[in-house]
Amino acid sequence: MSKLPPEHKFIDLSDYGRPVAKVIAQSLSTTSFTPIHVTIGFIISGCAAIYCILEGHFWLAAFFLIFKSILDAADGELARIKNTPSYTGRFLDSVADIILNALFFLAIWFITDTSLWICAAAFLGLQLQGTLYNYYYVILRNKFDGDTTSRVFETDTPVALKGENQKNVNILFKLYSLLYGTFDKTIYYLDTKAGIGKIFPKWLMTSISTFGLGFQLLIIAVMLILGWKEYILPFFLGYTLMVFIFIGIRKKWY
Fold first, then answer.
1. How far, in Å, CA of 187 to CA of 237, rounded?
2. What is the tens place of the pLDDT at every residue in 119-161?
3. pTM, entire model
4. Does the keyword Secreted apply (predicted)?
């Protein structure tokens, strides 16, 4: 993990693709490819996974889901290598993720007998899970001078960094606020004082990293391969209960 100083790193179960992502980023470091190009690549990989799910090609779907996760890490790695952080990339990444997540779940709903209401509730749960992980993770990154492109509270449009267009930042931030605002406010309401409490222990962050998108996609991929497609949406709906358990642990002891 390259977003925290060495002494505060934890085992991130959602970040299994980081080693390959670093190789990809390093191979692109001397080319004209930008982090935005890599983000577009993970969007294409996500769309390929959706197509494969709908067509019943579950091994291929699993490949593209995991490859999407790897590219999702590679765009940030390339930005760090080239020293080109940008809010454009940060918000485009997040907007693409939530749209793809919705499409993944709709594709799974389409090929199963799962209720559309369960699909919708599972998607909301999935996003709450990811938001809690990101909330705690960004707090750590900001505390220890890690990567600060992401802010604990995305409440106002940031000023464009060198090399990016303010208009693009404005548009993407509005989209981000529209798509994520409710989830951010919900998690903040549930744990308002997380930013002023004790430092989260590594074991807790590792546990919460199961909420990271990379791990979520890995679970979907494995369940598709095992023929458990009918259980994917109910699983994520049920696993949302862990949001309240993790928050309870954080509040009681940290």
1. 17
2. 999 999 999 999 999 999 988 888 876 555 566 667 789 999 8
3. 0.93
4. no
